[in-house]
Amino acid sequence: MTEVVSKPVVLTKMCELHGIDMPKEGELAERFSRAFPSANYDQNAGEWRMVWKKGAYAESKARLEAFFADNGVEIRQVDRC
What we know:
Elements (H helix, E strand, L loop, with lengths): L8 E6 L2 E5 L5 H9 L4 E3 L4 E5 L5 H14 L4 E5 L2
Parallel strand pairs: 1-5
Antiparallel strand pairs: 1-2, 2-4, 3-4
């Protein structure tokens, strides 16, 4: 599989809101949108945003980590909660 981004994607945990700092468009964004249809790109924040219900973060984080690993993308995580 070809690499679709050249820098790590930053996952920011903001309690029930999560930010995913990756390009709005492109191959990875298309795959991400299909895998996480509830995610939206926030123009003001310049990143993808997802809302997760309290208590479901561990499962959500595991899904995000698996998605990026499967797509050959390095991630960096920031906790702001």
